[in-house]
Write a structure and sequence with these properties.
homodimer, 344 residues, alpha/beta, Rossmann fold, Dihydrodipicolinate Reductase, domain 2, seven-stranded mixed beta sheet, six-stranded mixed beta sheet
């Protein structure tokens, strides 16, 4: 469906995820005829380096998608709602990183390592949704175990980085470090509170049931991707003062039975993961090790002592929020279409 | 058993917990004839301010406890092992903050809000153990619910501060902030790694079952204090870059049934806690709000959607590691004896 060298557009090119998309397209040598950088009027006119060339950021308009084969969106829900359908109408395949279409039954929600087969059904331009970052990182780790014995219940606590709230949030965390050292009051524009040396419940809106939107995404998106409404999930999403990689503490209850050694073997063979689980050296997944990498790091793999033998496992995972949690996953989705076409 | 104005000794007086002990004795106007500050030879000779007076830190020796009625220990397991029995022999009531005697069946392990009744049985000088900080903070929050309907299973993920590893660890975290701003390489003497903008599995030794010592303390100390070996617990203990208050994400399964509203009422009436649970303002427990305070903050109270109605609750708690997690709990234990005596 995509030509072997498509024209690619990045919508939200000057955001944290947009910049990462461009960097990953270069790094993975994604075959492209050209790349078009789109952003709001405010950011239009800025210049970005790409493979030694200077690219001008253009203002996003209804005509932006003429001649575009692949449009990667990461400019928030409102922009996606308005422009994703226009891009499809213009003939582009859209991969949308916002939450706008994720739970739309007509829209595939995809992590290639989790449910990449869904992409095989796509034969014409449409919207494909990129899941929420916490969901992607959790499911790359947990899905191989789910396929093996079935996950009955999952209890997740997250340790989420600044990057999930955008480049300005990362900058504010670093600014607060400077302010701490200088003895100045903290700048609190993004989260309205001290972030350095602090931890707080995820900044998304909290619903009547007491869950915040980030937690609900993890619950709902998992069920959709696993095509399994029986799986029981609870999550507590928390922001910690790290820059760009999320960690998650995951407790699993299995439908079947799985020994720790077998879980370890399954995870070692799984795509998109790296085992970091050195008990002697006390070396386990850390955000600074996941940052900038492709893999979800998995460690602290152990049989859960609070469940019958074989019934449960504890894990601790770390993944780059901007890469596998967003930009990289979107580009991996797009690669499926280029590769299929190239193989014809 | 204690005179109405006892002679008090603090062993490890120059450590983070020792300093906090002295400060809390002053703040709570603990009735004392005098206070004796004891430390290793290295720290002896330093001078500490106390209620406007200057106190000399003395070297800990076998004769240090002559005339001492109450000895508060926080100088590590090795010092406790050697000197707690000597202090008892000299006639002192000992409250030990180390892990040395916690699991000794003959030694009471006490959080006054959890099992304060155990203290009523004590009639002569002995060792009383102060539990691990993560255990204290979790149990102040969870015990009222356990008393109401019984906790069947508890899944805990921690967000632990630098202070648990001592004053030097707090200092190193702040130093790393200065080094980040200056562009210098990080000083990594305490944890052997970058701590600023990072998260890592708790630095205690990991056993053959994959659990680290901090996690095992939470499992074992809870069972001992609840006098309940049937309760099933798993924990994942993680260090985050905060200074002196721990947070914990706690998922509970009940033996009986408990509605969210009833759980909230029980917690609101519980001793030693403060509810911080404003869903509209997105204001929940944060380490910087718990720091320096007496209470364990409890929020994110919600019925667990992954369990049958009434069967489970999620919580997020924060407590000052140096205060309720250590020094304050030890002094609350001691206060029981002074108060009893004073009432006679």
């Amino acid at each position: 469906m995509l030509p072997s060298e498509p024209v690619v557009a990045i919508v939200g090119a000057t955001g944290a995820v947009g910049e990462e998309m461009l960097s990953i397209l270069a790094q993975r040598r994604f075959p492209m005829q050209s790349v078009k950088l789109l952003a709001s009027k405010r950011s239009a006119g800025s210049v970005v380096d790409f493979r030694g060339r200077r690219l001008l950021v253009e203002e996003l308009t209804e005509d932006s998608f003429d001649g575009v084969h692949l449009a990667l969106f990461s400019a928030g829900k409102t922009v996606s709602k308005q422009y994703c359908p226009i891009a499809v109408q213009a003939g582009a395949l859209v991969v949308d990183n916002s939450s706008c279409f994720r739970m739309d039954p007509a829209v595939p929600l995809v992590v290639p390592e989790v449910n990449g087969h869904v992409l095989d059904r796509i034969t014409k331009p449409c919207i494909i949704a990129n899941p929420n970052c916490s969901t992607i990182i959790a499911l790359v780790a947990v899905t191989p175990l789910h396929r093996a014995v079935g996950v009955e219940r999952m209890v997740v606590s997250t340790y989420q980085a600044a990057s999930g709230a955008g480049a300005a949030a990362m900058k504010e965390l670093e600014t607060q470090a400077r302010e701490f050292v200088a003895g100045f009051p903290y700048t609190t524009k993004i989260f309205g509170r001290q972030y350095l040396f602090n931890v707080f419940s995820h900044n998304s809106a909290v619903g009547e049931d007491g869950y915040n939107e980030e937690e609900k995404k993890l619950l709902n998106e998992t069920r959709k991707m696993w095509e399994d409404n029986a799986v029981r999930i609870t999550a507590t999403c928390v922001r910690v003062p790290t820059l760009r990689a999320h960690c998650e503490s995951i407790n699993l209850t299995f439908r079947g039975s799985l020994k720790e050694a077998d879980a370890r073997d399954i995870l070692a063979m799984a795509p998109g993961v790296k085992i970091v689980d050195d008990r002697t050296a006390n070396k386990f997944p850390e955000p600074i090790d996941a940052a900038g990498g492709d893999d979800v790091l998995i460690g602290r793999i152990r049989a859960d002592l609070s469940q019958a033998p074989g019934k449960g496992i504890d894990l601790f995972v770390a993944g780059d929020q901007l890469r596998k949690g967003a930009a990289q996953n979107a580009i991996q989705i797009a690669e499926r279409f280029v590769r299929v076409k190239a193989a014809v």
